Amino acid sequence: MNGEKNVMAGVVNNELVYTPFRDTIRLPKPINEDLLRMVKILSV
Predict the structure, then answer these.
(1) 41: helix, coil or strand?
(2) How many degrees, rounded to 5, is the angle at CA 8 between CA 15 and CA 35?
(3) Is the backbone of residue 8 left (phi > 0), alpha (psi -120 to 50) or beta?
(4) Span 1-44, pLDDT tens digits
(5) Could you give the 3-state DSSP secondary structure of residue 27?
(6) Largest interatomic CA distance in the chain
(7) pTM confidence score
(8) Cα–Cα distance list, 11 to 16, 23, 34 (Å)
């Protein structure tokens, strides 16, 4: 992780990106309605 600290690693557009933990908690995250619908269908 190239010496990165206090970050979460993820992949965006096929590239490795680091997001500070404080941003993962603080920033709002939209819910994908299609995925939510799929979860409801698969949970039956």
Answers:
(1) helix
(2) 75
(3) beta
(4) 678 889 999 999 999 999 999 888 887 888 999 999 999 999 98
(5) coil
(6) 44
(7) 0.52
(8) 5, 16, 21
